[in-house]
Structures are given as structure tokens and as C-alpha cells.
Amino acid sequence: MKGSATLLGTMNYAQRHSDISYQSVPHIGYCVSSAGFGCYRVDISVLEHQQSLEKALVSGINVIDTSANYADGGSEALVGKVLHALVGKGQLQREEVVVVSKVGYLQGKNYQRSQERKAKGQPFADLVLYDKGLEHCIHPAFLAEQLTMSLARLGLETIDCYLLHNPEYYLSWAKTQNVSLEEVRKEYLRRIKAAFIHLESEVAKGRISYYGISSNTFVRPKNHFEFTSLEEVWHIAEAISPQHHFRMIEFPCNLFETGAITEKNQLDDKSLLEFAVDKGLGVLINRPLNAIQEGRLIRLSEKVYQGEAAQQAIEFKNKVASLEATWSKIPTLSQLALRVLRSTKGISSVLVGMRREVYVEEVLHELRQATKTLERKSTWEQIRKL
């Protein structure tokens, strides 16, 4: 399918769905729904996933976030199938939808191919041997090959935004290799720079429109071994070209994981989100409803708990709701968790897993609620203390 997302296309889409909340992505100009369809754990083999994505796209959600390794490629294949079907029926235009995909993991078929290459003495360069059945790579040759495969699965001429998927896996691996932090960081940034130079060439070819990074460690304290510095990454892009296309970042943020806003880990004691806003970067949030705290998964929904745990979830929800008068009327913890995020200045779209149509309905209901977008730094600090 030819074409890519455009300012005019996404604006027309937003106008058709005027009851839904949208945000403008700085520099890029896309008009994107305040919540996007997260494709982790969706697969082309599941009819319910297809129906959910179709419902989202015809109802006002125009951001899709997928990855080459989700469902071993089945997630991208599902996105391609649904997009082609809806465009073919005239229910959607390619220019109206922002497609984000990611690259870096070698699992499943990719992992098997990697082992076959090593057996032939032709391993991928700069390969990170992370764990059994899992490797990682952001070398230009790997990126070029993976982009070709992703475009084929998606059936697209252009991916709107292509993200390096958790490049900090190199840091996790290097931590076990008894190498100095200075050497490790120098090599990490070298790899990112090489990847960015290649991605600029893919923009020139028209295979991607913009690129960026999805990293879980953007939000870490600056002295953490696995910290990924947005400031340093930004300087790499600026050094490559003043007209660079590094324009999107993705990271976890929720009512328990507040580091993106409360951790001062950038230049002049700015937070990650503050720095992103200053530079006009698009910001995608993942894990909005599934927090990881001290190695435990915490679901931000009362529905999944019973007994005392359910009561604790309700009490936590009431404490957060008390921080702003308008939040007291929000009926559920999950809806509140989304409201806090989408009403925070600088966040372009909150990525939500919507594998069932009922989940899509819940997100659409939230997007129809009017809210003010504010900096909310003090509010997030209060949430952190809770």
C-alpha cells in the first residue's frame, strides 16, 4: 500500500471523529488520538484481535504501535491485513493512520535465522547474546533486513515511525562483561549513532518517515548502569544533521512508574518529559495500566482483584482522584490512570492493549471525556509519594 500518514490526512480523520480527544505531534504535525492501539500480544491468527483493531480504527483511534517481534511477526501481519481491508472498503485512508513499528529483538524465527547464520560463520554484527532464545541487534545491516520484512508483513510502502526497540539490552549484557561504564557508554552511543545514520538513509529512500527509540531505561536515574540518556541521543541526531528525523520516543509511565516526570535525569535537572517537550519530540506511553514495581506486576484495574486487594485498589484510586476536583467523578481506576496521563502536557498518545472490543469501547469512552492538558509536575510528585 502506497502512502504514509500526513498532517492533512490525520486532521481530516480527527474532524470526522470530533467527539474524540486528539493531540498534535510537534514538528511532525500528525493529529493523533490521545490513546493508541498497542499491539503487544495481538496476532493475525486471532479473529477477536482483528475485530478489535477494526473497531478502533473506524471509531476514532488512529495510532497503531506494533513491533517485528510481537507474536513473532503476527502482530504486524494483523495490522497489514486490517489496514488493507478498511482502506479497500473505503472506510479509512492510509494518510489518516500513524503506524509505528519497532526493531531490535531476535526471537522465534529471527532467533532461528541468527543461529543458522552463526553456523555458517556469518553472524549478525554487533549481536547481543542476551538470554537463551533471545538476542538483540541494532546494526545497520540487521535494521535494513528487518525493515524489509516488516514492510512486507504490513503490506506498506512506508512505516510512519520506526523505533529502535529497547537498545539498552546492550547495556544489560555489558554489565555482566566486567567492562568499565565509560567504555560501555561510549560503545552504546556508537551503536545508536550508526543506527541513526542508517535510519536517515531509510528516510531518504521513503521506507520510513521518522525514527526514534523505545526504551524502558529512559526513565532511570542518570547514574544507573542501564540508563539511556535522551539528552545524549538528541545530540547524536543533531550531529548527524540539523534536519534529522529523530522525532519520536516511547517509554513506560503510569501511576506507579512515575520516573519520566519525577526523575530529574536530563540537562539542567529536567525530567525526561520536560526535555522531550523542549525538543518537540512526539511521546508515546506504554504500560499505562500494567506497572512493574520491585519485580512485581501491578494491574491498574479493580476488576482483576478480589477481597482485600480489591479494597486496596479502590483506596489507591480514591487517593489519586482526590488530587484534582474533576477526577473524583471518574468511576474506575483504569479510566483514572488514562486520564492522568492524557491530561499531562507533552504526551502525544497513550498506548493501550485492546485485544477485545470491550476494551476498545472502554478506551473510546475515556477519550470522549473532556479534559485540560497541564504540566502537572506537582501532581505527579504527589502520586509518586502515594
Record keyword descriptors for this entry.
alpha/beta; 8-stranded parallel β-barrel; 386 residues; TIM Barrel; 14 helices; 17% strand; 3-stranded antiparallel beta sheet
Protein model, in words:
- The chain has one domain: TIM Barrel (Alpha-Beta Barrel), CATH 3.20.20.100.
- The longest helix has 25 residues, at 181-205.
- The mean pLDDT is 96.
- It has 386 residues and is α/β, with parallel strands linked by helices.
- It has an 8-stranded parallel barrel, surrounded by 6 helices. Strands 6-8-7 form a 3-stranded antiparallel β-sheet.
- The chain has helices at residues 7-16, 47-59, 74-88, 108-119, 140-154, 169-174, 181-205, 230-240, 259-262, 272-278, 307-321, 333-342, 357-367, 377-385, and strands spanning 22-24, 31-33, 35-38, 63-65, 98-103, 105-106, 128-131, 134-136, 159-165, 208-214, 246-252, 282-286, 290-293, 296-299, 349-353.
Largest sheet: 8 strands, parallel, barrel
Report the total helices.
14
Number of strands: 15
CATH level-3 fold name: TIM Barrel
Report the CATH architecture: Alpha-Beta Barrel
N-to-C terminal Cα separation, in Å?
48 Å
**Mean of pLDDT:** 96
Compute the number of structural domains: 1
Which outline best applies?
Answer: globular
Q: Write down the Rg.
A: 20 Å
User: Structural class, please?
Assistant: alpha/beta
Listing every helix as H and every strand as E from the N terminus to the C terminus, the arrangement reads HEEEHEHEEHEEHEHHEHEHHEEEHHEHH
Which consecutive residue ranges, at least 5 long each, have pLDDT under 50? none
Helix content: 40-55%
CATH class group: Alpha Beta
CATH-defined superfamily: NADP-dependent oxidoreductase domain
The strands making up the biggest β-sheet line up spatially as: 3-4-5-9-10-11-12-15
Strand proportion? 15-25%
